[in-house]
# Entry
Amino acid sequence: MHSSTTMTAIRRFGAQAGLLVLTLALFLVTGCDSNGGMDDGNDPPPEFSVAAYDTTAVDGGPDEITVSDVNEGGIGYVDANGNEVTDITWTNDFVYKLDNFVFVNDGQTLTIEPGTVIQGLPGNGGDAAALIVTRGGTIQADGERDDGTIDPIIFTAEGDDGSGLGRDVKGRWGGVILLGDAPINSQPPTTQIEGIPDEVGGDRIRYGAENGDFDPNHNVGTFRYVSIRHTGTQLQGGDEIQGLTLGGVGNGSTIEYVESYASDDDGFEWFGGTVNTKYLISAFASDDSFDIDEGWTGSNQFWLAVHGADNAGRIGEHDGGTDPESGEPFATSVVSNATYIGIGPGVSTDAVSGDGENPFLMQRDNNATSYYNTIFMDGRTNAGLQIEDLDGSEDAANRWDNGDLTHQDNLWFNIGPDFSDATEFEDLIQLTTDDNGTVSGDRGEAMRTNLAEYLRTNGNEVLNTDQSPIASITRAEGARGPDGAVQSFDPTPAGPATSGANAPDAFGNGGVNSNWTPVSFRGAFGSGAEWALADWALIAQDGTIQ
# Structure
């Protein structure tokens, strides 16, 4: 900025009598004209192409707009002629700052241009910042330009200049929540999204459908080439918001090429719904990378998860029903071609906060999420997989017995500190136990033998120590934990991962991304999976992926 002064007209909206009315505010801001001289005030003043809403103000200059939600008006407003404006575009010539919870209300559409940066302001509890698209609201956030170039949309914390704040900076703001009326398996058939206080949003924070009148084809819009960073601030009851939360989102929605980076809770969490996804990244989450609840039935391909070495949950925590646990539809989501990289096999329990990948992949409460063509590697604990077995009908083992839960053509490598060429699936299976450590469930110890044999006969392999399924991985000795954090890795398939993929037995439930992309490799990367990571993902730009 230069020391000369120019007059800029800024449109600002205030709330009166429960409605938003247009007012005109003039602010003095520093700047210079195109010739570098003093603006004489005769030229037409520039205008914002997007208004600042409600009681918001422009902070730090004309390039920043603070957005809040007053009188439950969402992102909409009433213009000078009394017309309600419900279609809003956020353009990439501004940084948008979310002040508290900002809603895209029923009937409103928020379009975000490629290259736009949205920052969540600091706060916790009822003062946290988050963007919430309600049932009936629509978001069109596509980071691909008309000419095919990628200019990602970035949701991040205040102070991020676009290069991120580091993998250990977490919990600076809330996150992004998308809601819809696709099927869930809870009772009643509408549920308040996790963690947000009732007084904040009322009906706007509910997902599912009254009277069970679900729409499996619900369309929340497009969320594509988006990086979400440094999320997970504390809400009520110790809950946090994930990087991206999807509650009752339907398969008419486009969710692909999305990164959750350094969340202080989960990377992604689904609460029911039917949405399908492709090309998701969960990097350095404090809790679970991919968390599933309430009967999600979507199909998914090309997922990447990588944990840090000092703070992690499970690479996958997959639940079926919540209330009741026997609720239907059962969670029958499908994941094909994932690469899951854990916190490192030499890290002790005492060195890790959170669940610490105990187990690496958990399936419970009637969950039947099936995995195909996936790489599981570098997990901390001796055990790798737990399919819950209880004494009764409300467990994931019943879904496995019934053929609903499938593990096929997956690779396991370097899981646990005792990993060696002698490691077998029996060593990687964690049985369900009670509080005293006694094996519970109606299958008893036989569960280990039977599940191991099933895995072997369905194309799954425990690799030898010299059979890394990716090209390379580097850990810095002593950085965090005995073996250090993941410093960088090349996820290109190597060894047995270069071939052996097969089409899932069941993939797709209709809608967007319901077709399996034919590939021969296992894991998330290879010819035919076009990630273009360097163009949009922070995990590539910060050098973690080589």
Q: What stands out?
A: The longest helix spans residues 446-456. Residues 99-541 form one domain. The helical segments are 198-201, 396-401, 425-428, 446-456, 538-541. The chain has two domains: 1-85, 99-541.
